Amino acid sequence: MKGLARLIDRLEAASDDAVRVQVLARHLRSLADADRVWVLALVTGHAPRRAVTGAQLRAWASEAADLPAWLVDDSLAVAGDLAETLAHLLPRPDDDDGPAPGLAETMARLRDIAAVDPGARKAGVLRLWTVLPPEARAVANRLLTGSFRGVVTPGLASRALAEVTGGDAAAMAQRLAAPWDPATTRMADLTPEPDGALRPYPFAPARPLDAAPETLGPAGDWAAAWHFGGLRVQAIRRGGGWQVWAPEGEPVTARFPDLDLLARLLPEATVISGEIVLSDPTSGQPLPAALAARMARKTLSARHLADAPAVLVAHDLLDLAGDALGLMPFATRRDRLDMLCARLPSGAPIRPAPAVVEEGWPNRARALLRGRALGARSMWLTRRAAPFAATEVMDWSPPPMSIAAVLIHAEVGQGPGPLAAFTFAVRDGVALVPVAKASDGLPPEDRAELSAWVRANTTDRFGPVRQVPPVQVFDIGFSAATAAPRRKSGLMLEALRILSWHRDRAADDIDTLDTLRALSRM
Questions:
Q1: Predicted confidence band at 463 (pLDDT cuts at 50, 70, 90)?
Q2: How high is the mean pLDDT of the chain?
């Protein structure tokens, strides 16, 4: 368990996915099979259900450490994390009790605690605390309270496992993404034989268009279609199976059961590249907040599927009924895609990406500004003559929008360094309504200055969150404002970035929620 705690710290600190793969692979090599299974389960989010509440743990730790409840609460207010706070307040384990239990043994003890009557769980938790060091206790506390979260995707974990075992990463990714119980799964079950039929093609790279579009050559050489900022995928029906893949070898079929109808409607041996978009069933407007929420949920109810149904917005056709189309020009593949979608029933959860009909770069630039009204995030440009192997998508985004907002909250990170994130609000009448949580964009010297100001002017604390007087005004940039009914503002801002800090600007001068609503309709 202590090793798992260190692994999670290293994975969270890693600079990119390639480093995370190497960190996880090194750790897996050092483990026996039983512990490997549990590591793979936990880092990918297969954690047990909550056994006790945070309030129970706080009360039991106060008793075990012989500390008054107010001191535990004050420590929690400073540290901000319940699991970490309680882990370090408890007495250190007695070395005479021998080495701490390994991961598989600790998970067995946690299962035993969850299996007994709720009134008897306290004794099991106290016994577990006496044999675990603080780092391991913090992880155990999160597992007990159901607050433990996975830190890597099944696709990334499968790449690490493939490095260790020499097996097929795609087959392992499918296995790790499917439901499985680490208590009854063997290591051999997680390393199945390759299934080449459902293996995705490499994803065509999508690069932001940072220069003027004229640098690409004549506009007529490039097909243009609207991109909605959904989840990039390849949908494969082949060999009697059905699989939907995200980039980096990530199977997401189970997250989108509303697309399973395509497994019966599409011709056998068909591969489509596109993006999954969740939309409002009445207006048809994309709901990026609902997509993010669905990807984060462990289970999906019928209501979730009905409130924000998924559709595959198809951009390219790679195989059709066994015909490999990869050597054909993109323009031909797109024509075949349009014909395929036209033959499917009107209720099928698929549609071709809407083509941009304007010709010439100036006309397309004007259309780009109108794309927000359609719910589009950008325009995708693909060279008409390119075969799939040479396909490169240029992502042409409109200029960002911005609002003036006031800082109301800041969130501390680990240690005494700069703050981790900042929450900004606009006015709704006389009230302040939070609309954005951002951290990118501030130069290091400004972040350090703002962090010091927050610490000196905190008016209240809520765990890791610090409330401050609403006097510091900032310009906040964003790419789009979309409906998010569960948020207080009713809107979600995408691609947030802090543009500038107006130290001398009055807070009365900030924008209003009506201004933001108007921008969301642009």
A1: low
A2: 88
Distance from C-alpha of 324 to C-alpha of 380, rounded to nearest angstrom = 23
**Percent of the chain predicted with pLDDT > 70:** 96
Q: Are residues 427 and 355 in the same domain?
A: no
> Which residues, 6 or more positions from 138, have their beta carbon under 8 angstroms from its beta carbon?
5, 81, 83, 84, 87
Statement to judge: residues 370 and 450 lie in one domain? no
In this structure, what CATH number is given to the domain that contains residue 497?
2.40.50.140
Contacting residues for 231 by C-beta, under 8 A, at least 6 apart = 246, 252, 275, 276, 291, 295
Comparing CA positions, the residue from 274, 277, 294, 295 lying closest to residue 286 is 277
Same domain, 368 and 515: no
Q: Are both 362 and 483 inside the same structural domain?
A: no
Q: What is the pLDDT of residue 299?
A: 80
Would the pLDDT of 391 be above 90?
Answer: no
What distance in Å separates the CA atoms of residue 507 and residue 509, rounded to the nearest whole number? 5
pTM above threshold 0.90: no
Query: Looking at residues 180-184, what average pLDDT do you find?
Result: 87
Average pLDDT (262-289) is 91
262 assigned to some structural domain: yes
CATH number assigned to the domain comprising residue 261: 3.30.470.30
**Beta strand 460-462 pairing with 421-428:** unpaired
Please tell me whether residues 406 and 360 are part of one structural domain.
Answer: no
- Give how far Cα 207 sits from Cα of 161, 246, 424, Å: 29, 17, 30
Whether 471 and 375 share a structural domain: no
Give the pLDDT confidence of 470-493 residue by residue, as tens digits.
999 999 998 888 777 778 888 888
User: Between β-strands 421-428 and 431-438, what pairing exists: parallel, antiparallel or unpaired?
Assistant: antiparallel
Task: Let me know whether 356 and 409 are in one domain.
Answer: no
DSSP code per residue over 201-255: PPPPPEEE--S-GGGG--GGGEEEEEE---EEEEEEEETTEEEEEETTTEE-GGG
Domain that holds residue 128: 2-145
Q: Is the pLDDT of residue 245 over 90?
A: yes
In a domain, 155, yes or no: no
CB-CB neighbours of 518 under 10 Å = 12
Q: Of residues 296 and 185, which shows the higher confidence score?
A: 185
